[in-house]
Amino acid sequence: MKLKDRISVLTKLGQELSHPNLERTNLIKTSYRYNQWFTQESYESAIQAIAERMLKQVLLEKWVEPYPISDDQTPQTVGMVLAGNIPLVGFHDVLSTFICGHISQIKLSDKDKLVLPYLIDRLANFDERVQPYFKIVDRLANFDRVIATGSNNTARYFDVYFGKYPNIIRKNRNAVAVLKGTESKEALHALGKDIFTYFGLGCRNVSKLYVPENYEFNSLLEALHEYREIIEHNKYKNNFDYNFTLLILNSKKYFSNGCILIHEDKAIQSRIASLHFEYYKGEEHLHKLLANHREEIQCVVSDEPITDWTHIPLGGAQTPSLSDYADGVDTLRFLTESPTPIA
Fold first, then answer.
1. The pLDDT of residue 219 is above 80
2. How far apart are the first and last CA of the chain?
């Protein structure tokens, strides 16, 4: 397939995904029985973000324009180990590989085994030439490059297994939010999307706040209370209760509105249903705090731009564009550069 044909079939998929259908709904319900973190709402949120932010012709054409994607190249096989923390989290890697004309050899996460194959089938339904570009496997073998995503612990194993191949190996990261204390009620409510979407399980979910000294939390707690229905989810409620108990037993000071626990902690990553915060003393101190954790921070959301960080407005963390690459590693550049010979 030529690049224009791949863009065309992806655009058709985006148009179809913009409208829910019974087959997709039933498949998501089946997936939920295996993984109750992946609700209908969570899946549809991921699918609509993909349709609106990734699978539009004008966006795809602009995205690939700077890269040397040739219609005459010999396709390479890209081995992929997909994460399963949120629905369709590996879709961007699969999309990137296909748009470059390479073959995706995909090891699915046990937590998300049904919907991505369905999307691939839909692509093939539009154009049967799509089929050879995707192979779902139980074990990677005979590949030219690797993209593997997991925890800090699994990344060490990935380094051992895939270190001799051209690779992208991703570890744990989270988003953080910088507040000034002057945010509007609407902005603080938007921040709730960054915190609660996918129950906070994504690498782009805000897990920590940086706030000025003497920050008043009441307005934030009130705005986040609008998301209180999340506590009705059984797994989330169990985590809330467990973490609440830990805070009480350890005599830690905390803020809560019944659906989120906010407490002071220097760590970037927080437990489910919890949110860390840290005070900063002016802009210089803030920049130092952020710089110290650059390898742990996926992105920074804020009302106003933060020096040395791409500006993402409050509420925008979970709707990345095509060029918002995970860990800041340009996937298309990786897939279009000349491969390093394997020793």
1. yes
2. 31
